[in-house]
């Protein structure tokens, strides 16, 4: 069959991922956005990075305008959830340089998520180059205001238009970025937590340790019920015995008891938070013993009774540190410092955000510049 050279060229996939093609917008939308008050997650920068998996390899690396997608109603992700994501941030430092926080760790976790969901692994070196390129293209979107940041959301999903339940043969990776506001605009706001006897979040052997869609949808109904009862979020207990503390919504949880730090160990059903890891490393650096171990809800109430429970806080990329004001469990209520952040949580928050905005020495080399 004869093909015109132009058509032949258009059909050639760009399998050379050392080349990232740029297809940029003519004019930026950045002036339409109030970067001092961007909210969280509903404003998107001009461009996104795109990669497609077909014929057995990731290809067509390109930076394209952020836009809606055309998808088949039969796209398997919509039906069976073969999809994973990441959530990380870039910060504009006091010196105007833009830096990623623990980029490699986030990209490796994306691949861990892919592995569990039967998605072909990504070349993290390519993603790193793509992100640097993308942020330099959309540099104006990185907020200048202290406390604000650029949230980075990689998303991978199966694109086969097929109703069979099986691993897909085609996938898409998109990386979108979104300027986000400071979590604590009006001071720290301690959250109130409750356990639930009725629902569970994840079970060992399942997918609780990765960022995949099916871990979040089923938590919405229990979270709404908790809100109706006046609580901010649910503190999840283990699925087997309903005794051990797991995590909170999209945060890991820490307890400071008698001068030492305690957090549930990575049992396979909780997410391996990168903020969690950062908190552990800093605490150890400050010579505070850290215990990663099974923690029962009862022993936390007991420590509160004994007056040894000093602080409770959650950790995650969005808020960094989130003080916990109270925990409700089977009719009993434990109240910490209800409208204050504890001194240790505050020190962690100040140190981590100090490293992120490059006002504090980056002892662990967590930051990497975009150039
Ligand atoms: C993302 C997430 C966390 C926090 O992880 P970070 O890497 O610190 O942002 C904790 N729990 C769940 C369920 C999450 O999705």
Architecture overview:
It is a single chain. The protein has about 375 residues and is an alpha+beta fold. The chain has two domains: about 15-180, Aminotransferase class 4, branched-chain amino acid transferase, N-terminal domain (D-amino Acid Aminotransferase, Chain A, domain 1, 2-Layer Sandwich); about 190-355, D-amino Acid Aminotransferase, Chain A, domain 2 (Alpha-Beta Barrel). The chain is built from eight helices and 18 strands. The strands form two sheets. Strands 1, 2, 3, 4, 5, 6, 7, 8 and 18 form a nine-stranded mixed β-sheet that branches. Strands 9, 10, 11, 12, 13, 14, 15, 16 and 17 form a nine-stranded mixed β-sheet that branches. A hairpin with a 2-residue loop joins strand 12 and strand 13. The longest helix has 14 residues, at about 105-115. Residues about 1-10 have low confidence and may be disordered. Pyridoxal-5'-phosphate binds near residues 271 and 276.
Features:
371 residues, alpha+beta, D-amino Acid Aminotransferase, Chain A, domain 1, 2 domains, 9-stranded mixed sheet, 23% helix, globular
Task: Provide a quick synopsis of the model.
This protein is an alpha+beta fold and 371 residues long. It has 8 helices and 18 strands. Pyridoxal-5'-phosphate is lined by residues 87, 211, 247, 250-252, 271, 273-276, 315-317.
């Amino acid at each position: 069959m004869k093909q015109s050279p132009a058509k032949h060229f258009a059909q050639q996939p760009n399998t050379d991922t050392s080349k990232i093609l740029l297809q940029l917008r003519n004019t930026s939308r950045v002036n339409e956005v109030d970067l001092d008050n961007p909210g969280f997650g509903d404003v998107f920068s001009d461009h996104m990075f795109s990669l497609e998996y077909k014929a057995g390899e990731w290809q067509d690396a390109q930076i394209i305008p952020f836009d809606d997608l055309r998808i088949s109603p039969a796209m398997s992700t919509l039906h069976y959830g073969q999809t994973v994501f990441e959530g990380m941030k870039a910060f504009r430092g006091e010196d105007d340089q833009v830096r990623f926080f623990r980029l490699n760790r986030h990209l490796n976790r994306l691949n861990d998520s892919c592995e569990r969901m039967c998605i072909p692994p990504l070349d993290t070196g390519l993603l790193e180059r793509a992100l640097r390129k993308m942020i330099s293209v959309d540099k104006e979107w990185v907020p200048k205001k202290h406390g604000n940041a650029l949230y980075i959301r990689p998303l991978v999903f199966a694109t086969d238009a097929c109703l069979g339940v099986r691993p897909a043969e085609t996938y898409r990776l998109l990386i979108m970025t979104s300027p986000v506001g400071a979590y604590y605009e009006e001071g720290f706001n301690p959250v109130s937590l409750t356990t639930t006897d009725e629902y569970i979040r994840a079970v060992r052997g399942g997918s609780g340790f990765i960022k995949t869609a099916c871990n979040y949808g089923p938590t919405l109904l229990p979270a709404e019920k908790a809100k109706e009862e006046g609580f901010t979020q649910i503190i999840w207990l283990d699925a087997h015995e309903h005794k051990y503390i797991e995590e909170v919504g999209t945060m890991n949880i820490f307890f400071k008891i008698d001068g030492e730090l305690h957090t549930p160990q990575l049992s396979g059903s909780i997410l391996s938070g990168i903020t969690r890891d950062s908190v552990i490393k800093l605490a150890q650096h400050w010579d505070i013993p850290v215990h990663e171990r099974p923690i029962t809800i009862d022993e936390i109430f007991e420590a509160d009774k004994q007056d040894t429970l000093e602080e409770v806080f959650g950790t995650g990329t969005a808020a960094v540190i989130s003080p916990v004001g109270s925990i409700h469990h089977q009719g009993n209520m434990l109240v910490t410092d209800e409208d204050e952040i504890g001194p240790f949580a505050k020190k962690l928050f100040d140190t981590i955000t100090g490293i992120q905005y490059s006002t504090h020495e980056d002892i662990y080399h967590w930051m990497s510049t975009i150039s």
